[in-house]
Amino acid sequence: MDPLTRRKFLLASAGAGGAAAIAASGFGFAELLATARGNHEADADDGTDKLVLVTLYGGNDGLNTVIPYADPAYHSARPELAYAPEKVLHLDDSLGLNPVLTGLKRCWDSRQLAVVLGVGYPRPDRSHFRSMDIWQTGSPEAPVPTGWVGRWLDGTNANAEAAVSFEPALPPLLVGETRVGACVAVGGLQLPRGVDAELVAALGRLQDGESELQVRAAESYQDFLRVNELVEQAANSPAPPEVAELPPLPATATGGASSLAAQLALVSRCVEAGVPTRVYSVSLGGFDTHANERVGQEWLLKQLDEALSAFLDRMAKTKAGRRVTVAVYSEFGRRVRANASDGTDHGTAGPLLVMGPGIAGGFYGEQPSLTDLDDGDLKATTDFRDVFGTLLGSVLRADPAQYLNGYQPKLLPLVRGRV
């Protein structure tokens, strides 16, 4: 591709805010972006902790995930949806897990599952898009163009592979002003029809006399190919002896190749191969359970449970894997009272799960009242930024306030030996 044509392409695709977003606009957020170079050679255990963020899209019903089975108000508000106490996997004398979450119950019993209760944010918004935007940007007061992980990428001048999404599209979570996390499809590099790797490589060739903006854009295309190759090598590399005999992660399907199990399989291979990624983003959708919730949510929670428990079992086999922390969240919970379609409508607060070998298991925060409600919704008792701030400080070893727009979080003792 001649320099003039390439410049026109880059400039035409600009407009998403910053040089790092140029390639995103050119290819769409379904491809990988990054803006920094780095050395990819690493030992299987590079001595750094890693964070896996699991997003449950649609608004998971927290009351039927971590169930207040001993509360009469729970049973009276949703008689057709409520679980009988004897069916619930008891965690204490008042709260328990959904019956299908048997793997997470084993995690709880081994003190490696923390349940943070009543997590939400001030003045909740019941729009899927706005609420998820709030969670991923860490800014409930006003919209901002960057995610809290993206700002961490900015602040640390991170390499392209420092934060990777295995979701179909790059989440706002990983977008910074000068750095953007990498987005790698489960099946590898996915390019639009008529565009091949040679074209991407041509876009990445630097030309004399280009502006700083165009140079950064060209470097983004180079990183696009480089990180994709890195992940493919990790996926194809042999497993270490500790995990070589383990069965593959279950191939439960929530949209074919983009299932949560498939995404976590790539995470596991990257961790085992020593890929220097610090933050992974994966997801599972379908939690907008307005009708026939019991069947639909149980099906989704079972997939979540199987994928997570198999992943954690595998990670426990290696030193690098034992440095992994997993956090599971959704954009909001559901209404306390069931609707007329045996489902629930958009609500507010819900539980957030944090798990892994380094986690101090147990309950954190306060279970919201089911009778003292805000227009029929739960009142949040824990600000979500307190949880994310804790993960920034304890797992990523960063100053939480620097990446939460000045918010000073109340840090939780979720991680053993650290606050």
Helical stretch tally: 12
Mean pLDDT across the residues is: 81
How many angstroms does the end-to-end distance come to?
52 Å
Tally of distinct domains = 1
Note the run of SSEs as H and E: HHEEHEEHEHHEEHHHEHEEEEHH
Low-confidence stretches: 1-43, 242-258
Count of distinct strands: 12
Helix- and strand-based class? alpha/beta
If classified by CATH, what would the architecture be? 3-Layer(aba) Sandwich
Instruction: Return the CATH topology.
Output: Alkaline Phosphatase, subunit A
- Shape descriptor reads globular
Strand content: 5-15%
Radius of gyration: 22 Å
Helix content: 25-40%
CATH class: Alpha Beta
Q: Which sheet architecture does the biggest sheet show?
A: 9 strands, mixed
Walk me through the structure.
InterPro entries: Alkaline_phosphatase_core_sf (IPR017850), DUF1501 (IPR010869), TAT_signal (IPR006311). Pfam families: DUF1501. Residues 1-30 form the signal peptide. This protein is of the alpha/beta class. The protein has one domain: Alkaline Phosphatase, subunit A, CATH 3.40.720. The chain contains 12 helices and 12 strands. Strands 1, 5, 6, 7, 8, 9, 10, 11 and 12 form a 9-stranded mixed β-sheet that branches. Strands 2-4-3 form a 3-stranded antiparallel β-sheet. A hairpin with a 5-residue loop joins strand 3 (89-90) and strand 4 (96-97). It is globular, with a radius of gyration of 22 Å. Mean pLDDT is 81; it is low at 1-43 and 242-258.
